[in-house]
Amino acid sequence: MREPAPAKLNLALHVRERRADGYHALETLFAFVDQGDVVSVAPGDGLSLALTGPFACDLGSGDDNLVLRAARLLQSQAGIAKGAALTLDKRLPVASGIGGGSADAAATLRLLDRFWGLDLGIEGLMPIAAALGSDVPACLLGRTAIGTGRGEHLVPIANDLAGTPVLIANPGVALSTAAVFAQWDGVDRGALAAGEVSDIIAHGRNDLTTPAQELTRDINRLLDALIGSGASFARMSGSGATCFALYESDVLRDRASRAMSQDHPHYWTMACRLT
Ligand SMILES: C[C@](O)(CO)[C@H](O)COP(=O)(O)OP(=O)(O)OC[C@H]1O[C@@H](n2ccc(N)nc2=O)[C@H](O)[C@@H]1O
Ligand SMILES: Nc1ncnc2c1ncn2[C@@H]1O[C@H](COP(=O)(O)OP(=O)(O)OP(=O)(O)O)[C@@H](O)[C@H]1O
């Protein structure tokens, strides 16, 4: 049994306030693409995790892996002692702003809900997701949505840009989410616009871009390369350093992808579509 863990994008991310609990109040437009990690499960005694895929070497398969944390939390919340032999095919770069770990945790919850026959559904799994991380509820829902609070209050929205060709690129730099938030200057630059996804993006920002750029100059270089590649739009996702670009056609996107691999051979790229 397998479950996709699609990459998450923050099409816009407005940071409004530093809260007393150390988190930041956000307004963000979450969206997903048609590619990402994959979590699969087979019968097993106890809980175990095996890692495969291009980024397996950047992660441990120990207790702190979000797949095992999600499985353990679900086991204890459901009051069951069933086992699971889990495999994570790690295709997304780690600590890169596209929610890889959050997507894996969410996919694990959906997968084990079926595998263990718990039938909690998305609604029943939501509190467990929120306990695992700010992005896990959005990844559990897996639909275009406006997120508020620390990202866990979600309102789904129809995506007028569904199917749009996307190129996602990372300069090969891992950024700590906490370190990027710590660089935010405390200035509230205003709410998300109302309207369709395309309106929200056009009038939106990623307020973590400048903080992330203070930690790595590669983001400026990557955004310039994407904008110069024929994209109709480019922005950083989450706390970076991954950026995404939207294209008017597959041909333009694929040409940009080839140019990026030639000009920046050490960058990681993924050609995909908004869902
Ligand atoms: C940047 C985003 O990816 C945008 O969707 C998320 O806000 C981050 O979500 P995440 O990686 O699931 O983050 P968590 O694991 O919950 O938190 C990691 C750290 O990021 C900071 N953090 C996270 C979320 C938030 N709303 N405010 C924060 O200040 C906190 O220092 C926290 O200790
Ligand atoms: N399965 C996993 N995949 C990725 N990271 C994991 C996983 N399990 C634990 N982690 C840890 O979680 C941290 C954040 O990883 P993740 O890839 O979710 O960050 P991110 O892409 O910046 O996510 P976000 O956009 O939600 O901030 C990493 O430092 C990593 O060590």
TrEMBL record:
<dbReference type="InterPro" id="IPR004424">
    <property type="entry name" value="IspE"/>
</dbReference>
<keyword id="KW-0414">Isoprene biosynthesis</keyword>
<comment type="pathway">
    <text>Isoprenoid biosynthesis; isopentenyl diphosphate biosynthesis via DXP pathway; isopentenyl diphosphate from 1-deoxy-D-xylulose 5-phosphate: step 3/6.</text>
</comment>
<dbReference type="GO" id="GO:0019288">
    <property type="term" value="P:isopentenyl diphosphate biosynthetic process, methylerythritol 4-phosphate pathway"/>
</dbReference>
<dbReference type="GO" id="GO:0005524">
    <property type="term" value="F:ATP binding"/>
</dbReference>
<comment type="similarity">
    <text>Belongs to the GHMP kinase family. IspE subfamily.</text>
</comment>
<dbReference type="InterPro" id="IPR006204">
    <property type="entry name" value="GHMP_kinase_N_dom"/>
</dbReference>
<dbReference type="GO" id="GO:0016114">
    <property type="term" value="P:terpenoid biosynthetic process"/>
</dbReference>
<dbReference type="Pfam" id="PF08544">
    <property type="entry name" value="GHMP_kinases_C"/>
</dbReference>
<feature type="active site">
    <location>
        <position position="135"/>
    </location>
</feature>
<keyword id="KW-0067">ATP-binding</keyword>
<dbReference type="InterPro" id="IPR014721">
    <property type="entry name" value="Ribsml_uS5_D2-typ_fold_subgr"/>
</dbReference>
<feature type="domain" description="GHMP kinase N-terminal">
    <location>
        <begin position="65"/>
        <end position="142"/>
    </location>
</feature>
<keyword id="KW-0808">Transferase</keyword>
<dbReference type="GO" id="GO:0050515">
    <property type="term" value="F:4-(cytidine 5'-diphospho)-2-C-methyl-D-erythritol kinase activity"/>
</dbReference>
<dbReference type="Pfam" id="PF00288">
    <property type="entry name" value="GHMP_kinases_N"/>
</dbReference>
<keyword id="KW-0418">Kinase</keyword>
<dbReference type="InterPro" id="IPR020568">
    <property type="entry name" value="Ribosomal_Su5_D2-typ_SF"/>
</dbReference>
<dbReference type="InterPro" id="IPR036554">
    <property type="entry name" value="GHMP_kinase_C_sf"/>
</dbReference>
<protein>
    <recommendedName>
        <fullName>4-diphosphocytidyl-2-C-methyl-D-erythritol kinase</fullName>
        <ecNumber>2.7.1.148</ecNumber>
    </recommendedName>
</protein>
<dbReference type="InterPro" id="IPR013750">
    <property type="entry name" value="GHMP_kinase_C_dom"/>
</dbReference>
<keyword id="KW-0547">Nucleotide-binding</keyword>
<feature type="domain" description="GHMP kinase C-terminal">
    <location>
        <begin position="204"/>
        <end position="262"/>
    </location>
</feature>
<comment type="function">
    <text>Catalyzes the phosphorylation of the position 2 hydroxy group of 4-diphosphocytidyl-2C-methyl-D-erythritol.</text>
</comment>
<feature type="binding site">
    <location>
        <begin position="93"/>
        <end position="103"/>
    </location>
    <ligand>
        <name>ATP</name>
    </ligand>
</feature>
<feature type="active site">
    <location>
        <position position="8"/>
    </location>
</feature>
